Structures are given as C-alpha cells and as structure tokens.
Amino acid sequence: MLISGWGRYPSIDAEVSQPRSLSEIKSDISGRDGFRGIARGQGRSYGDSSIANNIISTAHFSRFHDFDAKSGCLSCDAGVSISDILDVFVPKGWFPMVTPGTKYVSVGGAIASDVHGKNHHLVGTFCDHLYSFQIMVANGDVLNCSKSENRDLFIATCGGMGLTGIVLNATFYLQKIKSSFIDETTYKARNLKECFELFEVNAGADYSVAWVDCLQQGDNLGRSLFMLGKHNEQAGLRETSNSGPSIPFNFPNIALNKYSVRLFNQLYYSRVRSKMRERQVHYNPFFYPLDGIRNWNRLYGANGFVQYQFVLPKDAGLVGMTLILEKIAASGAGSFLSVLKAFGKANANLLSFPFEGYTLALDFKVNDKVLNLLNELDAIVSDYGGRVYLTKDARMSEQTFKKGYPKWEEFQKVREKYGAQGVFSSLQSKRLGLG
Amino acid sequence: MKKVLIIGATSAIAEATARLFAKRGDKLFLLARNTEKLTVIARDLKVRGAKEVFTGSFDALDMEAHAGLLDSAIAQMEGIDTVLIAHGTLPDQKNCEASAAETLSAMNINALSVISLLTHLGNVFEKQGAGSIAVISSVAGDRGRQSNYVYGAAKGTVSIFLQGLRHRLCKAGVHVLTVKPGFVDTPMTAEFPKGPLWAQPDQIASAIFKALEKKKSVIYTPGFWALIMLIVRLVPNWIFHKTKL
Ligand SMILES: Cc1cc2nc3c(=O)[nH]c(=O)nc-3n(C[C@H](O)[C@H](O)[C@H](O)COP(=O)(O)OP(=O)(O)OC[C@H]3O[C@@H](n4cnc5c(N)ncnc54)[C@H](O)[C@@H]3O)c2cc1C
Ligand SMILES: NC(=O)c1ccc[n+]([C@@H]2O[C@H](COP(=O)([O-])OP(=O)(O)OC[C@H]3O[C@@H](n4cnc5c(N)ncnc54)[C@H](OP(=O)(O)O)[C@@H]3O)[C@@H](O)[C@H]2O)c1
Question: Which of A97, A336, B143, B187 is most buried by its number of CB atoms within 10 A?
Fold first, then answer.
C-alpha cells in the first residue's frame, strides 16, 4: 500500500497492519522475522517520520480508560485523537493542556513528537503534562514509564518519533474551561520587528501566534497578523461541526504560484481592517483553522509539499529570522502563510524540538529549487544555534540533525538498552543516521 | 437518557453505535461472549458519558438462557427503551456446502439465536407498548448468491422475521428497525481486501442512531446499497446466473 506523511512527500510501498489487541501488536513486532518498522497514528506528521516498510497503525486503539473529574487526569489508548478528546470533554468543560494546529493527531503521535501549541511560552509541551504511559518495546514487553519509573525510556520516547517502541496508552492532564469560545485579539504588525515586540509585550498571554506573509520584502519584511487568545468565561460549552469544504483532488501544479499566493496573503492581511480587532470565536477556527478544509494537503498538487519549521534561540531571533525571511522572499518560492510562535524553556526530553526562542513554520511545494533553498536555510539555522522540527521534516541531512539535536547519542544509548535498534525505524531515522 | 440493551456488544459495529448512545448519556446494558473485551469497552463508554454501564456474559447459542438473561438485564436497568442485536458470524460458504453441520451451526448463530431473543423481546416490548427493537441483518439477505447463500439465508430469515414482527408490534406502538449494512471493515471481514465500496463501523453506527431517532423501518447503510440491492434483486435469473456474485 502506497503511503506517505501529510505532505504527500515522500511516499513508499508499505505493509500496514492494524492490530486490535496487545497480542496482535506483539506478533506484528516479534512474531515474524525481520520486522523493521514504525508506529503510525493519524499520519499528520508531514514528512517521513511515520513511514517505513512495516507500519503498525494505532487506529483500533481508540478507547478511553478513565477520567478523574477532580484533577482532570485522563487515561486513554494511544490511538485516541485530540478530536475524540474534544468531542467528549469540551461539553463537560475540559480542554487539552496543549494542542497542535490540527485536532486530527493521536495521543501517541502527540507524545512521539512532543507537540507544542500556541501556549508553549507558558505551559510547555504536551509531554510536560504527561503523567505516564505504557509502551511495548522490541521484545514485546510492556513497560510503564513516567518521570520516576523507567525515566530514561520516558525522556527518550517523548519527542522520540516512535523510535523506542509502540506507545499503547497514556495518562495526562486536561485543563478546566468554562466556555468553548476563545476571546481573540488580532493586531496588525507591519514588519518583523513590530511582530517580535508584540510577542515580548504579550509574553503573559494564554495563547499567541503570528501569521506571517513571507513574500513581503524591505520595510514590510515580516508583515503579519499577530493573534492572542484566551478561553472565554461566559459563552457556554457549545459544539459546532467542523465539516467544511473538502479538496476532492490534487490541484494542478500551476494553481499555487507566486501570484496566487501573493494575492491570498494580501487578502488575508487586509481582512483585518483596523490595527487591532477583538472578537469571540469558537475553539475550532481559533486552534484548527485548516481542519475546516478536509484534505487541504491536496492543494499542493500531486508532487506534494514539505513543511519547514525551525526554532532560533531568543537572542538570535530577530537577526536570524530576518535573514531567513529575506532569503525566502528573494527566492519567490510560493509559501502560503507561515506561522510564527514564541517558545518558552526547553524540557529534559532528548529529542524534543522546542527551546526558548522563536519558531517559524512554512510550506513549500516540492521541487529541486525548493530543496536547495531549504539546504541553505538549514545552514543559517545551524549557524544561529537553531534546529529543525523532526515531525515536519522530510529532507534534512544527518549533519544538520546531529548538530541541532546534541543529545542524539544519549538517545541512541537508550534505544540500544531497550533493543529498539534495528527494530523500530522509519525512513526518517535511516536518513538521519539513527538506523 | 434512554435505557439501551446491546447484544453482541463487542462487535465493531455495536461498539461504534454504543459510543453514540454513551454520548447521549444513556444507561447501557452490554451482553457479549468475550467478557475481557467487554470490560474494556464498558470502561470506555463510561468515560464517554454513559450514565451507567452494566455488563453480562452471553452465548448466543445457549438459547435456553436467553429469556433469563434478558429479564435480568431489563430488571437491572429498571426498564428498557431500545435493544440492538448485533452478534453474528460470517461462515465459510465452501465449508457449509461440504457439511450440513456447518450450515446448521451458521443458521443457529445468525438466524435462530436472533429469533429466540426476538421472540422474548417482542413480548416484553409489546406489553410495555413502546420502545425500539433494532437488529443488524445484512444486504446479503436480499437475494441468495452462490458465493454466500448460507449467511444470506440466515440474514434473509432475520429480515423476514423482522417484517412480521414490525407488522405485529406497530399496533402496540413499538418500533422495529432492520439494519442492512453493505461491506464494513470489521474483524468479521478482516481477511477481505478492501475497496471503495467498504464503509467504516462509525458510518454504520451513525446511520443506526439516526434511523432509531427517526423510527425508520429498514435502512441500507451506506445508503447507496439500496440502489445496488434494488438492481441485484431485479436482475432476471438468466443474467444473474452468468455472474459470479
Ligand atoms: C495542519 C497541521 C498543523 C500542525 N500543527 C502543529 C503544531 O502547532 N505543533 C506541533 O507540535 N505539531 C503540529 N503539527 C504536527 C503534528 O502535531 C505531529 O506531526 C503529530 O505527531 C501528528 O500525530 P499523528 O497521530 O498524526 O502521528 P503520525 O504522523 O502518524 O506519527 C508521527 C510520529 O509519531 C510516532 N507515533 C505515532 N503513534 C505512536 C505510538 N502509538 N507510539 C510511538 N510512536 C508513535 C510515529 O512513529 C511518528 O514518528 C501539525 C500538523 C498538521 C497537519
Ligand atoms: N462487517 C460486515 O461487512 C457486515 C455486513 C453486513 C452485516 N454485518 C453484521 O453486522 C453484525 C456485527 O458484525 P461486525 O461486522 O461488527 O463484526 P464483529 O466485530 O466480528 O462482530 C461479531 C460479533 O458477534 C459475536 N458473536 C459471534 N458468535 C457469537 C456467539 N456464539 N455468542 C455471542 N456472540 C457471538 C462476536 O463476539 P466475540 O467478540 O466474542 O467474537 C462479535 O462481537 C453482524 O450481525 C454481522 O453479520 C456485518
């Protein structure tokens, strides 16, 4: 079966199993010779993190175990998605502590990528609110992991891109909310400097994010809409459906070119008329603007696209980011809107992406010119002491990875200890020299 | 809040449907053979919002025990609004052709055990004069086909039994729903290669849920199967016999 990540690049012919029980997973891994593969949740990682010759899907691990309405502590299978959690818990007044920009991710995927949301500067990553999980390691044993039990495996698995084993279930905390609506404030920032200032001034805001128009140059470089959000307290716990339009087929390659993207970005920016706008929005459009368009990844045509997300340390932020935006703008490579966020402090997990600084994520249609451009961007990111996000990556070099993630050796030692080497492996891990 | 009894509650289609009942805050009674799996499902439904979840062990083939099991389930829930019967097996047609015992066993599980349950439930519902009886039959029961007629005969038996039961119970104000799914991706069909005609259990579940709310009599699900089966039923034998259906 031909399979790929969300960016539809690259793809491989893989054998996908959908086990329904622990014993079925166990026989997938150890029951037959030569299993070399990786877990897969909802396939929302963009590149090649969740693809391999053998793939174990957690689709049927979709049950909740327990919920403590006093502490907000939830236990569930690793295949449960954030969307399932929202469906069940928003009406009861609970919300994930950390959610990525799509709700169609599994709990297992959220752990393996140690995902962040628009509130990293205050609350950290998904795994910072993870109490424990159970994982099946290479020999089929099921181990409990937490910050106190099998700690080495815990910090390797959180952010470890599935390379330590199959996470089976997890226990983590939700936050209490009073309403399913978000009070959103939008500011227009004319350039990157203004945008960074807004992040600084609003460092105490619950949620913050900026949408940057990457095609602007000169004085307008980094022109953006800066958005703040916080959970509304009064509007009630209503649900709305999210079944918006769907993209039924791959767009012809010509549809997304320099001009159409420029036009889109212009319209997006001018939608907000005044320098500041306040409104109340449902959590869906605030957190998951793209989920309203199913299969939007087909917009980029049959060849697929890559997303490039990097983080730069705080002091290097403005200079490094300016350099990178200049390069992108000069290249004219059509990226849609890009997303800029501020990160708080890093955690102890060996391969987790976030550290204190600024992170930018942009999409590019795949072609040789773009792949070259990204190599140049890698060099700048590396020079400024930054790193590239593994769950978005499909093409970074082994050197770039190892420089950006200096704890990779410690990570490999843990994998060795739990027998993961040569068993759990993805297209990405091979490319990055992790085996 | 409704009081819902689900028979064969470990079936993938039944579980997906139970999630919708749980979301509504229903009181559930789950009967199934594999009690270990049942415990895990019950726990999930509780978190999803079911008011209460009872479980009980049930073997479809132990028909002597049916009436007692049903009465005790209804007593524990303190009443019943809806029952969903979902258990079943997909017998191997070739094995059935070779063995009368295989064939009869397939008929026992897929037809007779359902009739046994429905006979008792029919009387309970008739007496209370309200409620819904939903049973998962199949499109396979609409016309006998060489590749699958033992299963088809069992499902056809159930469908016709339900027609009669509906006719009888409508006077008492009882709703009877026949669910005819097409191909569904569940453990029952794990061995089959899947194509565009295949549906996921949650699609079938929401169709069942809606049909219960709207008190429909018969549903084909996904809906396009109504058209496919209309054609399958209408094709004359001289053409039908040339096919490998
Ligand atoms: C529109 C969009 C917006 C996004 N926004 C953000 C964002 O704001 N912040 C952010 O951090 N990320 C973001 N992401 C990325 C996404 O959150 C991650 O890629 C996430 O890991 C996807 O989860 P998944 O279930 O789809 O995992 P998959 O893509 O299936 O797998 C991702 C990785 O997790 C591993 N994995 C999955 N399940 C298990 C398991 N049970 N045990 C062990 N390993 C497992 C896989 O092996 C793979 O390495 C976004 C993605 C999209 C498409
Ligand atoms: N899948 C399809 O394509 C399809 C199409 C049309 C109709 N249907 C019908 O849909 C219903 C549900 O099936 P499914 O697709 O959800 O498959 P499933 O998940 O395999 O469910 C079948 C269920 O029947 C139970 N069962 C079998 N024999 C039993 C017995 N002797 N006593 C008690 N329980 C017994 C099984 O219990 P265990 O869990 O203990 O095995 C299982 O829960 C069935 O009536 C089936 O005929 C299915």
Answer: A336
